[in-house]
Amino acid sequence: MKNFRFQNKTDIRFGTGRLDVELHDAVSQFGSRVLFVYGGHSIKKSGLYDTVTGLLADLQLTELPGIEPNPKIDSIRAGQKLAKDQDIDVVLAVGGGSVIDAAKVIASAKFYEGDPWDLVKDRGVTRWKLQQLPVVDILTLAATGSEMNSGSVISNPVTHEKLGTVGPNTPAVSFLDPSLTFTVPARQTAAGSMDILSHLLEQYFDRSKNNDASKGMIEGLMRTVIKWAPIALKQPDNYDARANLMWSATMALN
């Protein structure tokens, strides 16, 4: 086995019914000025938007909607401006991996005076020197594992680049409620499941020798996805299927 360092400070809140009881305190412990980052209209259609805004009604929410899949640098720039102008205390990301990726870079960009693309193209070197806002997230799609790692992938349509960047912090608190993925369409469920498997296979076929502990964990996660993904496709509101996929996604890239 190779030498490594492992550290993860994300507070995982897994299961149903936790938002009503725990979200307010999880966010407000960091302050009252909240940048609420989300994607399209799905959280409004599902009622999650109303739930979140209702639970945090006494806090100062500044919204940044419209985060794209493979988030664009212009969204990060908009978030940087809002974070500075509103002196944001904490970033709340509600969505899938792209929303959480964007939130993590915005959390760094508040403390950077230049263009946030600098924080991406240097692969995170500058981010490690900056202060970071805490990020709290509510996951709505099992796929990338962004809810418990420090990486982000950001795209720049002008330069035709899509680059990864790594910061010093993982999300402070992540809410993983499998029931929030009941409404994920079959196509996205299948794509997310393949994303999980691809992350696992990338690590499985490395060149390290005698790493049986890691290989065994990867094999177990792959078996889990292979078992439960078809069930989730046939029974989208099957809690155990969604729960196993969600936790596998989180562990696959962590």
Automatic annotation (TrEMBL):
Domain Fe-containing alcohol dehydrogenase-like C-terminal: 189-252
UniProt keyword list: Oxidoreductase
CDD domains tied to this protein: BDH
GO MF terms, alphabetically ordered: alcohol dehydrogenase (NADP+) activity; butanol dehydrogenase (NAD+) activity; metal ion binding; methylglyoxal reductase (NADPH) (acetol producing) activity
UniProt xrefs under Gene3D superfamilies: 3.40.50.1970, Dehydroquinate synthase-like - alpha domain
Cited InterPro entries: ADH_Fe/GldA, ADH_Fe_C, ADH_Fe_CS, BDH-like
Keyword Transcription regulation: no
Keyword check for Oxidoreductase: yes
PROSITE patterns: ADH_IRON_1 (PS00913)
Family annotation (Pfam families): ADH_Fe_C, Fe-ADH
Spans traversing the lipid bilayer: none
Signal peptide range in chain numbering: none
GO cellular component, one term: cytosol
Residue ranges constituting the Alcohol dehydrogenase iron-type/glycerol dehydrogenase GldA domain according to the UniProt record: 10-178
Name of the molecule in the record: Alcohol-acetaldehyde dehydrogenase
Organism: Lacticaseibacillus paracasei subsp. paracasei CNCM I-4270
Lineage, highest ranks first: Bacteria, Bacillati, Bacillota, Bacilli, Lactobacillales
